[in-house]
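hiii, so i know i said id send this last week but things got crazy w the move. better late than never?? heres the sequnce for the chain we talked about at the cafe, plus the structure i predicted for it. fair warning i was half asleep when i ran it
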Amino acid sequence: MIDINNPAGRYYEILRRAKGKQDDLKVRQVWAVVLSEDESDDSAITKKVIELYQLGEEVKSLIRMSEGINEELYLSSFPQIEKAIFPLNLNSTWKPQKQQLTDGALTRLQFCSEFLSSIYTEEQLQKEDLEMITTLIEQLFASVIDSSLEGGIRLTLLEEIERLRTALSMYKIKGAKGLKQSLQSTIGMVVANQADLTKAAESNADVIERLGQLVDKIDSFTAKALQVHRVLTKPVQFLLGLVASDQNSDAPDKEETTDDSEA
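okay and structure toks below
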């Protein structure tokens, strides 16, 4: 059984599904279905196909970095597989590109997946986890839209929300690692805009609360999936609290505690 929770396994599973599509379909129809995208949205389909290609590059990189492995044996089918992806003509018929996805090419991908399963550890996020993240993203978006935030910090938050939305939509391709990378960007945004966010919390507490909930959940879920430590050992509001406590010298000191609980 193929481990779809490593890059080679995800690559194999996506291409296997594409190989199973009918010859007379348009390329756009195949990738729209396989990558869960709107068939009429050329831009979104193209972005996901590019990410699929990058997934193949990640697999090649992981294999090449491994010692004591026959690189040529494992990677010899990649040039052929890549012809099934590019050049990308969404209006062309699927059959010519499908023919590149031979049984032999996909079998070598299976070997890659089996090898990576011994060195790459990742668990698949549950459907309920992904739905919770989706809900939290949409709640934060609505909260920002309805807020009285000033233009600069408002735009910054909307940009981060869109980044997280994109990472979530790419989960089938990039896995928990993609979500974690976007999370790190969001945490960097919080740190860089700490003073503005703390000020915003005075009149838009709901936005900051929802931002904290979203960051905490993604941090918890991705840490569990990748079997690594959480990025934050305290809720994101703690970062803002540091600023608040500096501004209020009369505020009592809070005892630092470590929150290692999972969602």
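btw DSSP finds 13 helices and no strands in the chain. thought thatd interest u
miss u guys!!
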